[in-house]
Specification:
With 142 residues, this protein is mainly alpha-helical. It is built from 6 helices and no strands.
Length: 142
């Protein structure tokens, strides 16, 4: 008699677990969605989130390359270890001033306008020459 009661109790507990399982799964899914949503962290703790993002950005930027002028022995040692890196320094270039940019832009506009004008004049001249000569003989014969 006790075994049938135990079996009945176990079945009842399993049935209760099965009934509550969908609600628990939905709760777990909602919690997981909340954990991966970055907006939740920004809303709930904006300053620590900002600090974490700033730290991640700081760590993502590579460190500045240290350039040194070693002696001959150090160069030989680095060359043996295949750690010698030689880079050519680019020449210092100056950025064009606002006036230089304006002059360049204006010059380009004037050059394009002049080419367009010359193209129009050549088109007119060729058109006049073609009209004075007349149509080809094949066209006149028809």
């Amino acid at each position: 008699m006790s075994t049938t009661t135990e079996v009945r109790d176990v079945r009842q507990q399993m049935e209760n677990i099965r009934r509550g399982l969908p609600d628990e799964v939905d709760g777990i899914v909602d919690t997981a969605r909340l954990l991966v949503d970055w907006r939740h962290y920004v809303r709930s703790a904006p300053w620590p989130t900002l600090g974490a993002v700033a730290f991640a950005g700081y760590m993502a930027v590579p460190r500045r390359l240290e350039v040194s002028s070693p002696d001959v022995k150090t160069l030989e040692k680095l060359a043996r270890k295949n750690e010698l890196v030689v880079t050519q320094r680019p020449e210092a270039t100056t950025r064009p001033s606002v006036i230089d940019t304006f002059v360049s832009l204006t010059g380009n506009m004037l050059m394009r306008a002049a080419l367009a004008y010359v193209g129009q004049q050549v088109g007119k001249f060729v058109g006049q020459q073609a009209s004075e000569v007349g149509p080809p003989e094949e066209v006149r014969a028809r």
